[in-house]
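To assess whether the prediction recovers the assembly geometry, we first specified each molecular entity separately, as shown.
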Amino acid sequence: MSTVEFSNVSKAFPGGAGKAVDDFNLKIASGEFVSFLGPSGCGKTTSLRMLAGLERNTSGRILIDGVVVAEPESRLFVPPEKRHVGMVFQSYAVWPHMSVFENVAYPLKISKRPKAEIAQRVTEMLAVVELSGLEQRMPSQLSGGQQQRVALARGLVMQPKVLLLDEPLSNLDAKLREKMRVDIRAIQQKLGLTVVYVTHDQVEANTMSDRIVIMRAGHIVQTGTPDEIRRAPVDAFVADFIR
Amino acid sequence: MRLRSALSIRSLLLFFAAALIFILCVIPFASLIYRVVSADGDFSIAVFGDVIAAPAVRLAVVNTLKVCISITALSLIVAVPLAWLITRWDLPFASRARSWLSLPFAIPPYVGAIAWIYLANPSTGLFNNVLGAPIFNIYSVTGLIFVETSFLYTFVFLGVTSALDRMDSSFEEAARLSGASPWRVFRDITLPIIRPSLMSGGLLVFLAAVASFGVPALIGGPARIYLLTTQIYNFQRIGSMSGFLKAAALAILLMFVALFLLIASQIVISSKKMQTVSGKTARPSTFSLEKWKWPAFAVVAFFWCVVFVAPVTGILLSSLSRTQGDLALANFTLANWTRILFETDETVRAFRNSLLTAAGAATLASVVAIFVSYISVKTRLKGRAVFDLFSSLPYAIPGTVVALALIMSFSSSFLGVLPSLYNTLTLILIAYFVKYLSFSIKTMSDGYRQIDDVLAEAAHMSGANWSQTLVTIWIPLLMPALIASWFLVFMPALSEMTMTLLLTGPGLETIGTLTFQLQEYADASGGGASVLALIVIATVILINVIVKRVSRGKYGL
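The predicted structure of the complete assembly is given in tokenized form:
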């Protein structure tokens, strides 16, 4: 479906000491599930937000499907609304003034699809995330886990090139988290999605990912399949973090 | 034994504070109503009908509605786009622009009226002189709406920017990733979520416009455009008992309108409240203005020039002009300054009176707030919510009404205990205290909320009784809040005009009333009022800087 490429990407915040992300290089294959794993402040969320277009990289370039979406050297920047990526936020960001149906239908409404198609696609998507029958509920009437599924359906409904997930499970209780891990992985495999998943939880990264990118202080420390990293961690930090 | 005596000091002080609030914040309004309905010996509400039937009053009601609705609409139309631009776009100097645009909030609007009279009055206005034709006429409904809006838009601006700051930015980011353009994000997501703050901002503007007196008096007066507040003043100035009763009856109607609006809006706003604040404080992504960066900045800068730079420059030029509206170099002089500061007896008295009453009210309010906020935050006393309600009552009620209510209650000897306070500085001090007490209580309550109970409990465990704990633990920890509370009362009281004009008398000039007198009639050549207005602006900005320093940015602009 879609590939992603980071090439020498760096991010310095104005007034910040040092770089939040320093010389980040990564190629993600179509249909691959990649996790960015690391402690808070390691630059994993910033990298994800640069891919989404919510932050601007200060150097290097980012490509989606072989097309450059951000390259400050040539003053090129595609804003998030034109990148066609889906995203699920840590706080879910389910709009409180819209029903479940309206939330999920919003991306289709923006791209001016016919009403009948919108209704059909929303119904399908809600079935995928197991929320059928809750179309008319308001977000305040939903549990955290249900809001999470609304956010997921909204991210998927426009058939994005890439799906980005920013610590989506950190606000759920342990049992629900386990079920969502399995569900998200199953949906990804079923739809053949390219996924970038940010987390600080090594269990999530190990059980869901095709590949893990371990980060520390703005740098990539190690990249590999969960198995490879477990068997041959490059240093004590990785060994300790992955244990 | 020790416990009992500690308890009794505590209850006594708390009871005293509560009683003071009840006597000063509630009884005057009750007695205003009582005096009006029982004026002819027996109970009658006929006086309300008579007052409403008067053509002058009807006209004032229509004018008030027309003017206040326009001010509210205009404030929303300017302030909301400005707030959005500053918080959500990559505007150059955005954070500085935010404090610039907030500045008019701290300045009394009558200062703006004086400035705009200098700049745009039909006969000698500077703009008209420069253009060589009488194009601008500030003495008009349009002029009145313009000057009021140039100050009151800040109510919406401050409320909406802070709502936009608090809002979880991922709501908007999710919409952008859904493909929505900046305008669609604003229309579909931002606007619905901040609607409660928008409504309460609009309501505050409307209430402030209804209650405003200085601008309508100075700008509407010469054009014979009267609003409810200026009509009440006219009735009261007649000086007869019947005039006074008319003023009081109209004041009561105005008071109920204000209270009704406030209660109705509270119900609407609280029913629409949504959970939109998240614990996560990601730096929100901004929209990119690209080539519109500097044009957008120019628009913001121009707006700031209109609402702040022009009036302040106008006041400065006016205070230095021999003849108003003349820009010739020979026309500039320090004569107005020396005349007002050194050759006018009233000036010294006005400064002394204003400093005394404002400082007195600020001190009294802060001391009372120490106890009242303690009750409402740190105890589970039944009915403690009543204090907040009672103390915010006078703030919601227009100043004209508060002043009339105080005159009613304290002009004859109060309950046979106190002597008459009419025509005394004490009554002016009480008016400031009553009007601004809720600022103190709000600040102190915030302060108490930030201090964990265990600190006081540890003091009790170390053997300190309640009053020792208050003095050694609470008050030192509350010092920043206490200082902020003092200045938040002192600042508006120092330049207060609306209430003081009704309460003043010979020898009781304040900065506000002297400015009004100079502008209205006492300073024939003009420029005198501008001298005082400039001093007010300088003081206000200085105090703001102090408050912001002391509270580490929590209060002040």
